[in-house]
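During the first year of the project, the team set up a workflow for recording each protein of interest as an amino acid sequence followed immediately by a discrete structure-token representation. This format lets reviewers and collaborators read both layers of information side by side without switching files. As required by the reporting guidelines, we include two representative entries from the current panel. The first entry is reproduced here exactly as it appears in our internal archive.
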Amino acid sequence: MVTASAGGLALLAGTAFGIAPAAAAAPPSDTLQQQFRAAADEFHVPESVLLALSYQETRWDSHQGLPSTTGNYNVMGLTQVDVAAVGAALAAGPGPDTVEGRGDDAPPRPVKGTPTPPTVQDGPELHTLDAAAALIHRPADDLKRDSAQSIRGGAALLAKYQTESGRGAAADPGAWYQAVARFSRSGDPGKPNPFADRVFDTLRKGVSRQTAEGETVTLAPVPALTVTRTATRAVFTSTATRAAFVSTAAAAVDDGTVATSATTATATTATTATTTTATAATAATTTTVDDGTVDDGTVECPAALGCDFQPAAYALTNPQDPTSYGNYTKANRPDDGDGIQYIVIHDTEGGFAGSISAFQNPSNQASAHYIVRSSDGHVTQLVNTNNVAWHAGNKTVNMHSIGVEHEGYAFPTDRPTWYSEQLYQSSAALVGYLANRFGIPLDRQHIIGHDDVPGPLQANVAGMHWDPGTFWDWSHYMDLLNAPLKPAIGGTLAVGGKVTITPAFDATNQPPVSGTADRPENFVYLRTQPDPSAPLINGGSTRAADWSDKAVAGASYVVADLCGDWTAIWYDGQEAWFYNPNGQTATADNRPGQTLLTPKAGAASIPVYGRSYPEASAYLPYPGITAQTVAPLNATVPAGQSYVAASATPVPSDFYYAQNIDGSAPNDRTLVVGCDTYYPIRYNHRLAFLKASDVAGGSTAEPCTQPPAPSAGVLRGVASGLCLDVTGAATANGRPPSCGPAPAVRTRMNLI
């Protein structure tokens, strides 16, 4: 989640999306299928194009006429945003967060300067609902609440775009590529458009789905479809507003496919975000940083996404203080031994351009590796994956993760209820690519939300973030990753077995959330007894931000008890009950190879940790590094309870020290690895860590001996994945021989 350290990015105000207080109208008597057909006939748009476009906007869901996180409405995803209200909300933000993105317990860096609050820049991309309403001569509220009017407005707008492209109405679906691309509100229509590519891929393959409202809509496949892509250029009235499209050259794709985007985008990228800064940052391919190194800006991204690179700040806020830098840490992951194990899903709590600008201000002390735009799924990279972005509020998680921001808001006061389909699809394509590249398991113990990240110390727990919120559709997202939440082979629920939370994200799972109408949610409530009137555990509430009493989709636990339609799990050191009739909200997963951990024999309870730092003796070879606190949370696992390990073997304890911007401090840019090892577990709503030496049920620990102190002149930093142990014995991406097979202290070389 992006937030400014003082007065920064804020939640959108209640009037920002122009929500009227009346409830959404009841579905019309005609089916959605008939409504699409009628609108297509009325506005001379191929019905198949209209169906495929709507599917890629909303999967044909009306969302009860309520807005998305970026002001989209109803089945066509048309936009209406009150720019003045957005600006007022951003200016009156909630103030500083209690947990820094860096996530360590060091004193705050002596940062000079203040974050620059984003200003609002208007543009027609924020008002497509109003434009469509004018075309069909209906009040804008009709297009919000009535799916038939939403479809009519979308069809009229698409027909207008087709006419302005110079092609006119055409019966051939393949001739509508540029109009569809413009409908996506993409910032650069001169490039291949991932949104349009997905629309025409949907046309080619066909799709059928039952919507959340219970209507079945079907699009027949057109496998032989040929798409004509017309190159265009945009005419801008300002740096961020697309005013008109002018047709230029045309080219046909004869093989029935749509050409994919280039691996990298050009250096000037207009955005369609709802907010931007007064001095909008432009994309760049290189940036020189204070230590004399160059971030080459290489985009690490699937080619079809057409990602660009706009570098986050790596600069001092006080030229006299080399520690006053932001917004990320130089490293050489994973070759330096700092393995990448997680991908963390965030939402920005600000617009696309405004969030990028915040990351480019070193006073904000926050960054992410990527950000995904809501309107068309465009992906911008900000930090190379070998470096450590400051995004999770927990240094252990930062060290071992990649952070992906998504344009949107976890719970604005006007309660938007959904994320765009393009955001889900681009994010899943990116995360699938990264998981394959770094060997990250595609499960919810490794593909996690910011709300899954533990507080590193007890003082941080209350301030940890809870994005992407209760209406992020984990089930759909994991389906897009080809990693469905429900295991193919699970067995039956049994005490002592594993269970995964798997509620459907539809009308069958609409637990109440304070201040909002019933809607699909991604969690189940947990109670003290198998009774709907029993209190929520931990004295919890129905507030969306209260994660203490919720088990989120994809999280796995050990079954503590069964009682009729109720299932109990071990959660937060206690027995917690949820309603699970016929396995409706959770699925057994008793496949072989599960690692279930319990306190070792003779222990009444064992401590729970929020990070996996080394023991104090691991720092002895490094006089320039202060040993970090190893302190448990105010949490335990009592004897008799069991928790699911996120990995079959424990992970090393480690700490990456990076003090000065140029790596010049004593022992700077050093990875300290201890002999202690930890198991990551799902402890409550969030992950946590147990020391391997405290548990039974895991693998047998191997002996570990700390090496002697190094002689003077040990090199520091990163180079070519080589490790150097303190006696000078080099190994390639492995452990120093002085520690044997167990983790050991390593220092990394930077040949500068």
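The second entry, processed by the same pipeline in the following quarter, appears below.
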Amino acid sequence: MYAKRNFVIFLLLAIIAFPAFSQSIKDLQAQKAKLQEELKMTNKLLIDTKKSAASSETKLAIIRQTIASRKVLIENLSLQINALDRHMDTLQSEKTRLSQRLSRLRADYARLLQEAQIRKSTYSQLLFLFSSESFGQAYRRLRYLQESSDYRKKQAYEILGVQETITHKQNEIIQAKQSKVVTLSQKEQESKQLQSEQSKENQSLSELKKKNKELQTQLSKQQRQANALNARIERAILEEMRREEARREAARRKEQQAREAAAAKKAAADRAAAERAAKKQGKKSKQPVATEEKVQTPVETTKPAPAALPATSAYVDMMTKEEALVSGNFAANRGRLPWPVEKGYIRGHFGIQPHPVLKHVTTNNKGIYIQAPRNSDARAVFDGVVTQRFAIPGNNNAIIIRHGNYRTVYANLTSIYVNVGDHVSPRQRIGKIFVDDENGGKTELYMMLWQDKTLLNPESWLAR
């Protein structure tokens, strides 16, 4: 009984462990599929840049992104191999336990068969019953014979069940071994591909280092353009905030004037009512006019002053309520916002970054640079309102979308699909990204994120 209970517990643990393994492999395979899509995208970008014979920073950046994705994919395959090894060890352990269980069942069944063989003849069974010393003992012996027969059948079924489970485990071990062989082969292929890509990286880097002066001149030009773009965007946002403040101030003053007018109207009505009451009282008492003046005097001294707004105004603009709601929703989705392109990768990260070629040279990025396939569209990352669209010499066009007190900026666009005042939704296409055919067909979106007057890192807000 104790051994049987242990066997049941063992099977339950095996049933619980199998879904956990399946989930682990399933997650790894989903990550693998995503990485393969990224590699497919970067390979397409690399093919586009090959149309430009000369090496460029764009080509080097794509190669490095491909290498980074390839390394993660190789690590993913290693994790799958380790998971398969653990799974095979678990299966082998389960198979060993089942084989031991099967041996005990067979030995027990053989003993039962021997006992049954002794009592096989009807005469022996009758003799066994009639040799009982009492009717109660005879009944118990009859029950024993029936239960012995049922137990033998149950043992036989259990033996068949354990044999079937062992066969199933063996098939799982074979499948796991086959999966491991395939995964090992994939890892070997990816490792060879990684070596080839690293050679290309070294070659491209070597060629670019020969163009040191050209790269410095190009960097200076890019920095001037970036500074002009950032300054133009900052001015646009600050001007927009000033207009919004002026609008709110005008609304506040209008509300205050309305309150003052209402208070003056009420005071006039109160004075008129007091005068009528005083005249009526004068007629009844036949008092002289001087008495009426005395009645009027206290009324005038209690004239209410114009109502002033309290220190914390009760006035709340309806647009402010909407903005607060949108801002709250936007902030709640940090790390979950959709990407502003359908496919792409971040070539230039936020903040101070080292130059990919020039030593001891850094750039301070106010936003992120997202490289995408040729002819890609920019997309809104959240619900909002288009507040500005404008052209910037040397940087094409830009759009500002407001999400409460947050703003997202999308620059380096050729065509714009939305107008000022339009409401946009997440993933809605808002413009086409410029394709730089003189730089290997680079298709790059510049994105910024502001909270009021504070710059934020857009990368930390996008979904992983």
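For the second entry, the following points were noted during internal review. The CA atoms of residues 283 and 361 lie 97 Å apart. The first helix runs from residue 2 to 49. Both points are flagged for discussion at the upcoming steering committee meeting.
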